[in-house]
Automatic annotation (TrEMBL):
Transmembrane segments: none annotated. One of its GO terms (molecular function) is orotidine-5'-phosphate decarboxylase activity. Belongs to the OMP decarboxylase family. Type 2 subfamily. This is Orotidine 5'-phosphate decarboxylase. It catalyses: orotidine 5'-phosphate + H(+) = UMP + CO2. The lineage of its organism: Bacteria, Bacillati, Chloroflexota, Tepidiformia, Tepidiformales. Keywords: Decarboxylase, Lyase, Pyrimidine biosynthesis. SMART domains: OMPdecase. The keyword tRNA processing does not apply. Residues 17-245 form the Orotidine 5'-phosphate decarboxylase domain. The gene is pyrF. It comes from Tepidiforma flava.
């Protein structure tokens, strides 16, 4: 089975399109404590998690002990729950090959995030792993996202629109990252690339609306995956609060589906 088939199966099995982001805050823990803490979060949130998404930066910030923590976190994720390695890589082909080997073979992620900025050849080493998923940054969730991504390409639409059209045709295992904080752009991406699977971060701490996400992108297991990190992992004092936050997000997305 491909990554997107596995994700769809997991999403349907548990009735959730929630991705739980695993981004430890260095101010709160040592790397070893972070691993213990996140293992507790995983145990508590697994019933609601269609996927997990550790962002590598939050582990790399500690150096080697952080990578050891990541190894322990990944080992705690139950088999059958896909894991996205959020690394946002992008480089010339030979370097991209090394990145792809690192993420898919050494770390064994089911999917990764990559930047389209270097062009198709730089994403091919990732897309060559046909059973894995490759989410290409299209319209990000940050306040300055429009600075480049919304630039008009004289007659060719805006840059993120071009990325949506191009990346969607790069291979059956290519998906797009579109932030929940930009609902109009999300709707436009779905118009331009209706078959492209979407990873949608930006609800929770960044303020995006789960209901708007479903209104713009639909509720499509495997094709639409909505990530929240801080608002789940640090929802409260114990893993029970994280479980409640993940469940609430699952329910908000379902309610939007049922209302539509
Ligand atoms: O690729 C991503 O996942 C990503 C893309 C984007 O446009 N915005 C975005 O927030 N992310 C990541 O999604 C996570 C969001 O975290 P919270 O804001 O804590 O929910 C972080 O790991 C971000 O790096």
């Amino acid at each position: 089975m491909t990554y997107f088939e596995r994700l769809a199966a997991r999403s349907r099995e548990i009735g959730s399109i929630v991705c739980v982001g695993l981004d430890p805050d260095y101010r709160r823990h040592s790397p070893a404590e972070a691993a213990d803490y996140l293992r507790g979060i995983i145990a508590a949130t697994a019933p609601f998690a269609a996927a997990y998404k550790p962002n590598l930066a939050f582990f790399e910030q500690w150096g080697i002990p952080g990578l050891q923590a990541l190894e322990r976190v990944l080992a705690a994720i139950p088999a059958g729950i896909p894991v996205i390695g959020d690394a946002k890589r992008g480089d010339i082909g030979s370097t991209a090959e090394a990145y792809a080997r690192a993420l898919f073979e050494a770390w064994r992620f089911d999917a990764v995030t990559v930047s389209p900025y270097l062009g198709r050849d730089a994403t091919e080493p990732f897309l060559a792993y046909r059973d894995r998923g490759v989410y290409i940054l299209c319209r990000t969730s940050n306040p300055g996202a429009a600075e480049f991504q919304s630039l008009d390409l004289s007659g060719g639409g805006r840059l993120f629109e071009r990325v949506a059209q191009a990346a969607a045709s790069w291979g059956p295992n290519a998906g797009l990252v579109v932030g929940a904080t930009a609902p109009a752009e999300l709707r436009r991406v779905v118009e331009l690339a209706p078959a492209a699977p979407l990873l949608i971060p930006g609800v929770g701490a960044q303020g995006g609306s789960p209901a708007e996400v479903v209104q713009c992108a639909g509720y499509r297991p495997g094709q639409v995956l909505v990530n929240a990190s801080r608002s789940i992992v640090y929802a409260g004092a114990d893993p029970g609060a994280a479980a409640a936050a993940a469940r609430d997000l699952r329910d908000a997305l379902r309610a939007a589906r049922d209302a539509g």
